[in-house]
Inverse folding.
């Protein structure tokens, strides 16, 4: 679960990780008020959307007077912000963060992420702050410091020294930086984060450490023990169909193609998408109804797929293991009747009681195509969408 | 022969009294697996279908000589259950549970690496040596005993599809292992491939990977210099968009790494026969595994 910068900064402040003074505004009047409370210029007006690259897209502006604050807030709030992470359709901006400008001496990059390889929490830092870290990693990998922290031991002073000295921090800053890093680590583990990124983390001319930006992502699997974090979820930032699917406990991702598909199991679902593509069509979605799908899940899956206008045909591929094919076939028939499917439906199922399942589908009177194996399922559905208007 | 489990495996089920635990324990028993104990804290002294239930793993091991545990405990308590098995010195721990937090898995990984236990999973279908022992939730009837192929996979139903096609071609399996779809897991591709390489009855290996992480690339490196048996590989997710988690917590393309194409390239360079269309994997196995 991703959250906004202003929300991440609220959590930062709770852990005494320093951030610039400022506040959130939904309109230019409030933006002006916050700026006057800050009391000095420049101030920064920052669009609050989940995607990165806001600066390049015109979503971050510097204001040198109250008039400029009003002007920037008016232009940013309501704008359709396009960045390399939003896709070409962009994202509507509903709110801005207004913050005090700071005297920057040095810009750094700092992030904490779980590392699959070492099963450690990895501190990634670089002197090349403010830039796209992936570009830095590609061009000058020597400028990136990585310090793994064993979660059973937790962060120690030597970890902090490794990072501080690796960043060539000036001596007066090392202590404050180390305290900040220690608290950031605490924040990371206490909230089950899957990413905390500060880019840039700045050293001011007054030798203060300050998080100018803040990005946080949480482990969805751990949200059961962080009910308080759920209030930070912003459904406006998510695809409406994805949100609907999450209510039904389905794994759904909306894509660009025309072949709706429903599969049990994530790996098989990906493989089915690939099969559709190899047959010459494009998948409209990823939809995993779970390894042990029920008839109800199948019905909900239909509802989601059918609410996507792009869909010209649907392919269902279920490998009935524990779930018997006859039960599944009944589920498909039931759901097809209830949801009044208007597009061609291709069904391929395999596994326990498959003959009985196929009989139920054949006798249902539904207009559907049955495929005997995966390759023919892909071919049939691709042929259907190729000939549909 | 087989790897990790066989007819001598003595299984203990953690979470045996839950709905899933009960159902799948019975399926394993029906298949012929020796289920010797169950553990549900607070229900010690009772039994399920005659299988004695204990309050803790240690006591269960002492009294039944269980050497393998299968975990059906829900995510909030699963990490604790795995740790309890490691603490009790269980040889093989098979964690079926899906949705264990990453931070919990990190701690388990650190703990297990300094123990004598092996963990398979979590978020996996389990492991089966057809005809000998089924420890997991996979449908038994799709398997064919007697080998000669070893199967290792990150995904559940995708493995069933592959095994189904193998059996359809008349090709049996030595052992099929689901290593799970989470970013941090116990046993990886290399562990399984190495075991298959060393197993005289296994004549060929099928590995099924998917997008995310570097496990397939690492396996390719290993195969290049250590594996003499033919390997067929399949990677799911060539159409997966970057930055989106495709169902499995581990299946995500991030920062340009973990793409299906990079994995396919690495495997091909290592001499692995890569099957690009899952619909044809059975036929491809029949062509390549000519023994």
């Amino acid at each position: 679960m991703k959250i906004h910068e202003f929300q991440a900064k609220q959590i930062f402040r709770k852990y005494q990780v320093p951030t610039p003074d400022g506040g959130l505004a939904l309109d230019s009047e409030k933006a002006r008020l916050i700026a006057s409370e800050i009391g000095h210029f420049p101030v920064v007006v920052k669009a609050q959307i989940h995607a990165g690259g806001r600066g390049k897209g015109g979503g971050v502006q510097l204001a040198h007077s109250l008039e400029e604050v009003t002007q920037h807030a008016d232009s940013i709030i309501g704008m359709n912000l396009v960045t390399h992470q939003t896709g070409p359709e962009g994202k509507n901006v509903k709110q801005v963060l207004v913050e005090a400008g700071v005297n920057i001496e040095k810009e750094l990059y700092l992030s904490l992420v779980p590392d699959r390889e070492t099963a450690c929490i990895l501190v990634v830092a670089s002197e090349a702050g403010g830039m796209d870290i992936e570009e830095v990693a590609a061009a000058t990998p020597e400028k990136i410091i990585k310090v793994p922290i064993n979660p059973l031991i937790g962060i120690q002073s030597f970890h902090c020294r490794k990072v501080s000295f690796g960043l060539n921090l000036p001596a007066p800053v090392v202590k404050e930086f180390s305290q900040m890093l220690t608290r950031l680590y605490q924040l990371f583990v206490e909230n089950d984060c899957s990413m905390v990124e500060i880019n840039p983390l700045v050293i001011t001319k007054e030798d203060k450490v300050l998080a100018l930006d803040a990005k946080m992502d949480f482990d969805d699997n751990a949200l059961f023990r962080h009910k308080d974090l759920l209030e930070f979820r912003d459904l406006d930032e998510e695809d409406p169909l994805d949100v609907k699917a999450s209510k039904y406990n389905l794994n759904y991702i909306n894509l660009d193609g025309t072949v709706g598909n429903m599969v049990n199991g994530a790996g098989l679902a990906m493989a089915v998408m690939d099969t559709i593509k190899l047959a010459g069509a494009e998948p409209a979605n990823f939809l995993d109804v779970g390894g042990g799908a029920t008839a109800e899940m199948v019905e909900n899956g239909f509802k989601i797929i059918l609410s996507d206008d792009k869909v010209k045909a649907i392919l269902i591929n279920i490998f009935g293991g524990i779930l018997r094919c006859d039960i599944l076939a009944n589920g498909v028939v039931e759901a097809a009747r209830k949801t009044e499917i208007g597009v061609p439906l291709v069904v391929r199922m395999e596994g326990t009681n498959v003959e009985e399942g196929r009989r139920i589908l054949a006798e249902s009177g539904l207009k559907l195509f049955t495929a005997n194996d995966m390759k023919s399922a892909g071919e049939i559905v691709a042929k259907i969408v190729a000939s549909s208007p | 022969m087989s790897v990790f489990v066989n007819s001598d495996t003595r299984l203990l089920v953690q979470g045996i009294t839950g709905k899933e635990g009960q159902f799948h324990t019975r399926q394993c028993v029906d298949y012929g697996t020796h289920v010797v104990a169950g553990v549900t804290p607070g229900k010690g002294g009772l039994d399920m279908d005659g299988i004695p239930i204990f309050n803790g793993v240690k006591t269960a091991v002492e009294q039944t000589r269980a050497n393998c545990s299968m975990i059906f405990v829900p995510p909030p308590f699963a990490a604790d259950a795995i740790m309890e098995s490691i603490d009790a010195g269980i040889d093989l721990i098979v964690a079926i549970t899906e949705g264990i937090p990453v931070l919990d898995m990190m701690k388990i990984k650190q703990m297990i690496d300094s123990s004598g236990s092996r963990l398979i999973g979590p978020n996996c279908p389990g492991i089966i040596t057809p005809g000998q022992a089924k420890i997991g939730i996979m449908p038994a009837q799709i398997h064919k005993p007697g080998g000669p192929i070893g199967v290792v996979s990150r995904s559940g139903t995708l493995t069933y599809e592959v095994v189904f096609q193998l059996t359809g071609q008349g090709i049996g399996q030595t052992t099929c292992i689901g290593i799970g779809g989470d970013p941090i897991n116990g046993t990886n591709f290399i562990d399984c491939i190495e075991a298959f390489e060393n197993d005289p009855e296994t004549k060929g290996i099928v590995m099924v990977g998917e997008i995310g992480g570097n496990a397939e690339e690492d396996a390719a490196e290993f195969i290049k210099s250590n594996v003499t048996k033919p390997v067929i590989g399949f990677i799911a997710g060539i159409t997966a968009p970057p930055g989106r988690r495709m169902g499995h917590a581990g299946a995500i393309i991030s920062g340009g790494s973990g793409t299906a194409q990079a994995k396919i390239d690495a495997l091909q360079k290592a001499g692995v026969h890569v099957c690009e269309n899952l619909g044809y994997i059975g036929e491809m196995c029949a062509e390549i595994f000519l023994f």
Notes: Chain A touches chain B through 59 residues (CB under 8 Å). The two ends of chain A are 39 Å apart (CA to CA). The CA atoms of residues 321 and 351 of chain A lie 6 Å apart.
